[in-house]
Amino acid sequence: MKKKLIALMLTGALVSSMGGMAVTADDYGSGDIKVWVAENVVDFTNEQIGSFMEEHPEFSGYTVTVEPVGEGDAAGNMITDVTAGADIYAFAQDQIARLVTAGALIDVEPGNAETVMAENDEGAVAAATVGDILYAYPITSDNGYFLYYDKSVVSDPSSLEAIIADCEAAGKNFYMEINSGWYQTAFFFATGADLTYDTDADGNFTACNTSYASPEGLVALREMVELESSSAFQNGSSVDKATNLAAIVDGTWDSGAAQNVFGDNYACAKLPSFEGCDGNTYQLSGFGGFKLLGVKPQEDENKLAVCDAIAAFLSSEEVQLARYEAVGWGPSNLNAQQSDIVKADEALAALGEQLAFTIPQGQYPGDYWTLATSLGDSIISGELTPDSSDDDLMAALTSFQDTCISYAG
Fold it and tell me: What is the pTM of this model?
């Protein structure tokens, strides 16, 4: 109850201040607040927090220190020693379950949670949620893959069959990395096959939830086999390593390279759909990736209220848009996504459409990625071909699924 009361008082103060009205400063005490963010946004974050603290003298008793700890390292450091960890920290969405179980995240204050859920895209909100509880503030929706293509070659980017036909007719190449456990899920998740893992607080894998060895998995695998058999297909996901390129499944990090290759014919789109061997049409899916901002539980409710306020500000529409302009991170805030400057970014716009069809990437054993490479390699090497029987394909899927399950427990 005390947390909610302080948060409500704080919300009123913030709203009044943002509206230019007089604010009655409450006494939030004093202390130190440690913030962890990626190195390339340390200066940006310092500037933003500095401005925020100037606008809120009621928080003047707190000294905020921003330290460079990347999203990939923050979760491990927090779980190792929650007490010594940051009070506010950015992390990758695949670590959220571990952080919650380890007691390194407190649920988002109810008033802020309503705002987060209303103002951010569904994928980012889902990534920040465990069970029915929102545990983090989304700050980006920009890690995933979509289609870059040459619009002078590809006439219909919405259909995989049409893309392949156009590439074959033009003698051009279509690139996708089918021997990658990241890109491979585009086919399996599209047809409704599942593959996720449960973990405990120490990051141990306790259960594998998978249905790859199923009719849905068979449709996905056969589509991968059919795709590889095209003369236009090339295995890969890097524009710089591609040759004779007309289309590629890739991410925002390659937008500059794609623009250089395609020039005036540069175009982007969400991933296409494909017609499965069962006659049904499936939208390619896959993993989505998000950066989240978490707040550590605090013994001092006053300090917790200040941490909540800072986290809410750093994840706000204003700051997400400023962060995009400063370092190019794609916002999760819906209004920021609709700003002219972000909408003009064709790669982010395409990714935004694609993320509606993806699931947030959770934690996977290291061996999973190696196993997925082997599955893709069995197609590339010709071990699995369009002439392979359903029984042969199902045997490959069953072996894959059984091995995935063996990594848990």
Answer: 0.84
Helix (H) or strand (E) holding 49: helix 42-55
Count other C-beta atoms under 10 Å from residue 60's C-beta: 12
pLDDT at 131: 86
Residue 80, C-beta contacts closer than 8 angstroms, at least 6 positions apart: none
Task: Give whole-number Cα distances, 176 to 101, 146, 147, 228, 354, in Å.
Answer: 36, 10, 10, 9, 16
3-state secondary structure of 103: coil
Residue with tokens 């978490």: 294
Domains along the sequence of the chain with CATH: 2-142+289-347 (3.40.190.10), 146-285+365-406 (3.40.190.10)
Give dist(CA 346, CA 212) in Å, integer. 33
364 vs 31, 182, 263, 292, CA distance in Å? 38, 10, 38, 19
pLDDT at 180: 97
5 has a pLDDT exceeding 70: no
**CA proximity to 345, closest of 266, 277, 239:** 266
